[in-house]
Amino acid sequence: MSPLPEDKPLVIAGQTYRSRLLTGTGKYADLEQTRLATEAAGAEIVTVAIRRSNIGQDPKEPNLLDVLPPERYTILPNTAGCFTAEDAVRTCRLARELLDGKKLVKLEVLGDQKTLFPDMTQTLAAAETLIAEDFDVMVYTNDDPILARRFAEMGCVAVMPLAAPIGSGLGIQNRWNILTIVEEASVPILVDAGVGTASDAAIAMELGCDGVLMNTAIAGARDPVRMARAMKLAIEAGREAYLSGRIPRKRFASASSPLDGMFF
Question: 72, 96, 102, 230 — which has fewest CB within 10 A?
Answer without folding.
Answer: 72
